[in-house]
Amino acid sequence: MMHAGPIMRLVSRATRVFPVEPDRDAGGAIALGLAVLEKRGILVWFPEGSRSHDGKLQRFQSGVGLLLGKSDAAVVPTAILGAFEAWPRNRSYPQRGRVKVVFGTPLSRAELLAAGSGNADAERIAAALQGAVAALLAKHRHGG
Questions:
Q1: I need a surface site. Which of 23, 102, 140, 143 has the fewest CB within 10 A?
Q2: What are 87-128's pLDDT values in tens digits?
Q3: Gap between the Cα atoms of 68 and 125, Å rounded
Q4: Domain limits of the chain?
């Protein structure tokens, strides 16, 4: 989990948001995610691991594949358009801009495994989910 000051810890607890640093305690983050899903909770996971340097979709990390490979929960591919323009990585604060969130069709672990490529299940799941998000981005960037 991300180490933060007392104010950020309070905000995280109050909103039930737990930021995770990609290079720290990935196993703990996956365990926490599984616990949320096992209780039929809603989990938002950013599978790229960090914010984009150029606004383009990055390769999804295998952690999302590990998580979904151990859960029977459906995943809803989600695209966020305009976030990079409103808050690029090199700026300290966001600026005014239009951000649009688009939700795709829920997918099961079996659907992701069948659609993805890679040697391991986690790789196939992550690749298929990335493909679903890329399709949403392409459709909605061009007026879909």
A1: 143
A2: 998 888 889 999 999 999 999 999 999 999 999 999 999 999
A3: 7
A4: 6-141
